[in-house]
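Posted in: Structural Biology > Protein-Ligand Complexes

Title: Requesting predicted complex, S-adenosylmethionine in pocket

I'd be grateful if someone could produce the 3D structure tokens for the following input. Sequence and ligand are given below.
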Amino acid sequence: MILDKSQQLAAHVIGQVLGGRNLAQTLEQLGRQHPQPTPQQRAATQDISYGVLRYYARLDALLNRLISNRLDDEAVRCLLLAALYQLEYGKASAYAVVDHAVKAAASMKKPWAKGLVNAVLRNFLRRRATLLTEIEHDEQARYSYPRWWINKLKQQYPQQWESLLQAGNARPPLTLRVNRRRMSADDYLLKLEHAGLDVRRLGQDAIMLAQPVPVEKLPGFAAGEVSVQDFGAQFAAHLLDVRDGMRVLDACCAPGGKTGHVLELADVAMTALDSEEARLARTRDNLQRLGLSAQLVTGDAGDPAAWWDGQPFDRILADVPCSASGIVRRHVDIKWLRREADIANFAAQQSRILRSLWRTLANGGKLLYVTCSIFIEENQQQIAAFLTEQADARQLAPNEPGTGQLLPCADHDGFFYALLQKI
Ligand SMILES: C[S@@+](CC[C@H](N)C(=O)[O-])C[C@H]1O[C@@H](n2cnc3c(N)ncnc32)[C@H](O)[C@@H]1O
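-- Reply #1 --
Done. Output follows.
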């Protein structure tokens, strides 16, 4: 019963995302449906939706081989994708998956759908091995990325493109950052072990869980002892090199992951800016939970005249909006929502923000430029162009471990860091 409903719900979610909507927001809105799905149904729906979008090109290629003409009915197509994902990657029995899909099709009041769904899924089970061999020759199906994305990585990473594509399809780990104002990472590690969780220390404040758990299950989470943050994202606050008393701007702060980390490291006067008020509210909640404070400002980082009081900042964190190509294992919808032309638009926006923020930096001050992208247009090319035209800028320690391009791997997502100083 649970499987039946979650399969249908996932088909709905997948249809929305392929139509251009954000996956996390679409899943969040499931809670407002009537009747409300149970927590188990929501978890199963999330699992199927993430799975289908992680392997969408692969499942779509299989489906196209099972149907002679492309299926025009998007609702039935998404139901088939959900069922194919479950058959190929799920734990439920093939009988239950097919049975539930057929019942879901029958409830759609499309007389042809029930027979088609039944035939396609049974055909898949019969021909599975042959079909899987056939699609191995199709790179889009094999790696499950859009063609332009595969081509870009081949061109920009001739050696690593394949491992980068594969890293983006892995299930992401849950990594924590211990709030050192509350307790040491060693002490928190013991707490996790006492709670029976299998954990591994990654860095100064970072601990990775072998199996993700809901945050409510983390000891001391509500009390602000710990935050969820990828290990690669935890490099930012350390690189920024903050000290007590500094004036710091976090220019694209929401939801405040890095803002909190900086404030855990030093007593600074923090201005936390973001252009989206709703996202800024999440920064407020996060800082409150951690027992930290900042001046929260809604505004455009590219237009300092609207929010800056003219006092230069000693440190600026510019975690600019980007393609998010380095964090696809967490945001599987990005592969299908982004278009190739978006990359140039992001680069233009990043360039505008970087140049505007530079004017608000004190002489001798440092600005950390950050993206969660692996595309060079947003990273190395952006910084090279900036340094060419900005005579008062130099890049610090460009070759030190932890700066430059951090490629996604088992321990962390993909990030780019460039530390710039005003001279
Ligand atoms: C990569 S996210 C920041 C993540 C955040 N630093 C953290 O660690 O939790 C980028 C943020 O930039 C914000 N943003 C986009 N355009 C902006 C602009 N022109 N000015 C300020 N913020 C902007 C978005 O709303 C988004 O919250």
